[in-house]
Amino acid sequence: MIKAKNPQTLFHVDAVQSYGKKLLYPKKCGIDLLSVSGHKIHGPKGSGCLYIQEKTKIKPLFYGGGQQRGLRSGTENVPAIAGFGLAAEEAYRDLEQKVQHMYKLREHALRELALLSGVSVNGAQGSEAAPHIISVSVEGVRAEVLLHALEERSVYVSSGSACSSNKPSVSRTLKAIGLKEPLLDATIRLSFCETTTLEEVDYALSVMKEVIPMLQKYIRR
Question: Which residues are the active-site residues?
Answer without folding.
Answer: 163
